[in-house]
Design goal:
The complex is a heterodimer of chains A (608) and B (355). Chain A has 608 residues and is an all-alpha fold. In chain A, a hairpin with a 2-residue loop joins strand 1 and strand 2. Chain A has 17 helices and two strands. In chain A, strands 1-2 form a two-stranded antiparallel ribbon. Chain A is globular, with a radius of gyration of 25 Å. Chain B is an alpha+beta fold. Chain B has a domain of 155 residues: Cupredoxins -  blue copper proteins (Immunoglobulin-like). In chain B, strands 3-2-1-5-8 form a five-stranded mixed beta sheet, with no helix packed on it. The longest helix of chain B is centred in the N-terminal third of the chain and has 34 residues. The termini of chain B are far apart. At the A-B interface, helix 4, helix 5, strand 1, helix 9 and helix 10 of A face helix 1, helix 2, helix 3, helix 4 and strand 7 of B.
Chain lengths: 608, 355
């Protein structure tokens, strides 16, 4: 043991062999600085928040399908807000608000990017841990605190924040306007401020780690696409999250200290407020300066994950590696200059609308390139249809279906009539919600053996996939129609408009699909928990993958590799590469060449 | 009891899943393969399911269109609305062509190239020509769409007042719409929430000479064929004036005046005679009759039959009754409109009823 520790110390300056100390339970499972444990913490917290978010959607889908019926479920879950089985209109708005907040930030930002950036960045670039394990631990615990505060806000007297997840003032600033804008909104803002701090600590760590800690031979063009995606996502996060923090701080000041950043000329509850000169449009600009990059913060890691999984399971290199990297960079850059397409009818200058239409439709180009490259990767492959692969294919499908309607929403002239209708709800749920969730599921199925040392049950995975994939199209495809029929989103019931009476049936169809889809997530949950304890023990490299994480031992050790960190000699996509005379694979009888295998005799390196 | 039922369902569900996974396990050809990695058998089955899903996807599209296109909005009732509908149609056709082709390729490849032991994947990492093609095609198509869209947008949003245009203020507050016509001088008097008092519910500045002939109104009537310029204000929170039949929408923002303009091209009466509208109204009334029977059986109030009207809805979350913030819009001939507006009381008459 001691000789090994010595080798480490010489081999790698930041490995002091301290993993040989006996770890206490608290060190190992709670205040751990090990990136693998932190990633598990992120995943489990994210899944827990996801259960709450999905449960909320089940409740409001129940209300939307049968607005004139009473349900005991409301009384059970909503307490006084569901008295006599009737949902309070304010709590309906609170449900959609917190559903959005939880799913976007807590599940798809922290749960997805937090989990897999933490797990994969050190493992795939060949580092013993993150640049700063301590900062990483703080990042998780700040996320945990912000989750707790968000959950606490559900129990305040007047109800949680209910101004929509975009919390536009003045509605979010004035408790007179909606009860949820009292203590509930304060907790929401505090929770998000802490969340942003957590996200920044995490992102800075990811960036520094990718830049500085790559193993020998791991040039930027040899990075797996997962790492490219996580790296660029972290950069977008660092650029845009601080802007949301400033918006939140200004809103806190407007709410509590009498400033007028976003408020002006308001008469409410029988009196004129003193606020003068502020503009809600300013808040919308600040919010969407984060808000739009945020959707790419959500989807890029999912695209990175699927790039890796599709290549591995196709037994083929990802098609157009350079184009994939270029499109990630292009999407990231464009994502920061398109925020105005959420504001075409906000009252901002129409000329700005033209500019944002232009930049928005440009973003379709790199997105299209990615979709075509995925499809080409499948072409003439030898597809191993594992659950992770199915979810990756599902992601490409929903990314295309949802992305295409973006052409309509990004076009300012067309946006006028579908803005804030169910058409928008259908669009963004498919293109970022469902797609990113598929990315999350794909990642969990694929890297479960690495995280927990066991395999998940594939048959339960197949059931989970097929019901989910049919169910989610069943939910969101009909939604386009009710949106184009002119039905606004965030309506507690549509019965106030006889004009919408013929949409009631479609809402029932949507809700039934939603309940089935939500129920089948229990299969995943069961599979996940049962496999942690009783799953089949995983081999070292179950998917025959090239990337470095599969060169580590199944049993987790602090520092990842027992001996020397492997060196890298090739890109990660040498699947089914043939030798010089094309008689067999480069390594005879094995259709993959891991990154740490030196070039064989007469082998040419891919000039990608 | 309910809690017990819910628990029972969850437990039964778990048992069902457990049994299902057992059946799957037992149905494996080689019982020894419990690696949990897809084998040839899995690949074959899942590949076929991919093809099955593709068929489901297309059928779902067709059934969706067959059943649900009738709920969509009827023809546009404003002049610019037809341009928007035209652009929408072109974009939709484009979207569906791309959607059908790409989904086919994706799922068909997933079926066709499903893994087999002896099969070798083709090492195909790059093709600059192909990538150039599928970069340049979206560039061209999108450029065309962008240009078309921008022309339409600029035409709609370029609001120029001419002599003939009618100026109307839309005023939003939780959870009511109000309107104010500019009167004979066709100029709205100044207004601010600080002037709200008594009957002056929308805060018109009485000291502004332009305000005297303004006509506050609780219903929105518009003459057909004449450009209407809406100046919008909000008294409390953000609202959005959404008039889907006219393809018109603009947020109302406290502290600023936003504007939108359109020319109504079809009167309410004409719209009621529109074929699509007649069908839609018939369907709605059928639904309402069935519901009424149900309600009557329970001794509750029945629903009134529905007649088509243009709508102004609130489309920005604004509080508890956001779902019921509406105003009827009536489009009528210039003569009818003139007769109606002549009957209304002006602002100065409202403020000084004795004069």
């Amino acid at each position: 043991m001691s000789t090994e520790a010595h080798v480490h110390a010489v081999d790698h300056h930041d490995d002091h062999g301290h993993h040989h100390h006996k770890q206490t339970f608290i060190d190992k499972y709670i205040f751990s600085t090990d990136h693998k444990m932190i990633s598990k913490q992120y995943l489990i917290t994210g899944l827990f928040m996801g259960i709450i978010g999905i449960l909320m959607s089940v409740l409001f889908r129940l209300q939307l399908a049968w607005p004139d019926k009473q349900f005991t479920a409301y009384e059970i879950f909503l307490g006084k807000f569901g008295a006599d089985g009737i949902m309070d209109p304010n709590i309906y708005l609170a449900l959609v608000t917190i559903h959005g907040t939880i799913m976007v930030f807590f599940v798809l930002t922290a749960g997805l990017s937090g989990t897999f950036s933490n797990l994969l960045i050190p493992l795939q670039i060949g580092a013993r841990d993150m640049a700063s394990g301590l900062m990483n631990m703080f990042s998780y615990w700040l996320f945990f605190i912000s989750s707790v505060i968000m959950l606490m806000s559900l129990f305040v007297e007047a109800g949680p924040a209910s101004a929509g997840w975009t919390i536009y003032p003045p509605l979010s600033a004035l408790p007179q306007a909606i009860p949820g804008s009292g203590a509930g909104m304060t907790l929401w803002l505090v929770s998000m401020a802490i969340f942003i701090a957590s996200s920044l600590l995490g992102s800075l760590n990811f960036i520094v780690t990718v830049i500085n800690l790559r193993t020998k031979g791991m040039s930027m063009t040899r990075l797996p696409l997962t790492i490219w995606a996580f790296f660029v996502t972290a950069i977008i996060g660092v650029v845009s999250f601080p802007v949301l923090l400033s918006a939140a701080l200004m809103l806190i000041m407007d709410r509590s200290f009498g400033t007028s950043f976003f408020l002006s000329d308001i008469y409410i509850a029988g009196e004129v407020l003193h606020n003068q000169g502020g503009s809600p449009v300013l808040f919308e600009h600040l919010f969407w300066f984060l808000g739009h990059p945020e959707v790419y913060i959500v989807i890029l890691p999912a695209l990175g994950i699927t790039s890796e999984i599709i290549a591995t399971n196709s037994r083929k290199p990802i098609f157009g590696y350079r184009a994939m990297v270029a499109s990630i960079l292009a999407i990231a850059f464009l994502s920061t200059i398109v925020w105005g397409h959420h504001m075409f009818v906000s009252g901002m200058n129409p000329f700005l609308g033209s500019v944002f239409t232009f930049t928005t439709l440009l973003i379709a180009i790199p997105s299209a390139v990615k979709a075509f490259n995925y499809i080409t990767t499948l072409w003439k492959g030898n597809l191993q249809l594992n659950p992770a692969m199915l979810f990756s294919i599902g992601l490409v499908s929903t990314f295309i279906s949802g992305g295409l309607t973006g052409i309509i929403l990004g076009d300012s002239a067309l946006d006028i009539n579908v803005h804030d209708t169910y058409f928008v709800v259908a669009h963004f749920h498919l293109v970022m919600g469902i797609s990113a969730l598929y990315g999350l599921f794909a990642g969990v199925y694929h890297w479960f053996p690495k995280m927990f040392g066991r395999m998940m049950n594939k048959n339960l995975g197949y059931i989970h996939f097929w019901v989910t994939v049919v169910g989610s199209y069943g939910i969101f495809f009909p939604m386009h129609f009710i949106g184009m029929a002119g039905l606004p989103r965030r309506y507690y019931t549509n019965t106030a408009f006889p004009y919408f009476d013929d949409l009631a049936d479609i809402n029932v169809v949507i809700s039934i699909f939603a309940f089935i889809t939500a129920a089948v997530q229990l299969v995943f949950l069961y599979n996940f928990i049962a496999s942690i304890f009783y799953g089949k023990k995983a081999p070292k490299n179950p998917w025959k993958s090239n990337t470095l994480e599969w060169t580590t031992e199944v049993k987790h050790i602090h520092g990842n590799w027992e001996g020397e960190i492997p060196h890298v000699y090739r890109w990660p996509y040498d699947y089914s590469k043939l030798n010089k005379d094309e008689s067999d694979y480069v390594i005879a009888g094995q259709d993959f060449v891991p990154q740490n295998v030196p070039l064989q005799e007469h082998e040419e390196e891919m000039n990608h | 009891m309910t809690v017990f039922l819910v628990l029972a369902v969850i437990i039964l569900f778990a048992v069902a899943m457990w049994q299902m996974s057992k059946i799957f396990k037992l149905s494996q050809v080689k019982p020894k393969d419990d690696s949990q990695v897809a084998n040839d058998n899995d690949n074959r089955i899942q590949g076929k399911l991919m093809l099955g899903f593709l068929v489901f996807f297309y059928i779902f599209l067709i059934v969706g269109f067959w059943k649900w296109t009738k709920v969509l909005l009827p023809q546009a009732a404003s002049e610019h609305g037809t341009d928007i509908d035209q652009l929408m149609l072109i974009s939709m056709i484009l979207i569906f062509v791309v959607l059908i082709i790409t989904q086919f390729l994706l799922h068909y490849f997933a079926f066709k190239y499903h893994g087999k032991k002896e099969q070798k994947a083709v090492f195909y990492a790059d093709n600059d020509k192909l990538e150039f093609i599928w970069t340049i095609i979206p560039v061209i198509v999108l450029a065309a769409l962008i240009i078309y869209g921008l022309f339409t947008w600029t035409a709609i949003m370029n609001i120029e007042e001419d002599d003939d245009s009618l100026i109307v203020e839309l005023y939003a507050k939780q959870f009511i719409w109000e309107a104010r016509y500019a009167g004979e001088d066709n100029t709205l008097g100044k207004a601010n929430v600080r002037f709200i008092e008594g009957v002056n519910t929308i805060g018109i500045d009485a000291s502004d000479p332009y305000s005297a002939d303004d006509v506050p109104a609780r219903e929105l009537r518009l003459p057909v064929g004449r450009k209407v310029i809406f100046k919008m204000r909000s008294q409390d929170v953000l609202h959005s004036a959404f008039m889907p039949h006219f393809r018109a929408q603009m947020n109302t923002v406290p502290g600023m005046i936003t504007q939108f303009a359109f020319t109504p091209s079809i009167t309410t009466e004409e719209m009621r005679q529109d074929e699509e509208v007649i069908k839609k109204v018939a369907t709605i009334n059928q639904i309402r009759r069935e519901k009424s029977l149900d309600l009557a059986a329970r001794g509750e109030e029945t629903l009134e039959p529905y007649e088509f009207d243009f709508l102004l809805l609130c489309n920005k979350i604004c509080g508890a009754s956001h779902y019921n913030m509406q105003m009827k819009i009536i489009v009528e001939t210039q003569e009818d409109f003139d007769a109606w507006i002549a009957e209304q009381t002006t602002f100065s008459q409202t403020m000084n009823p004795l004069d």
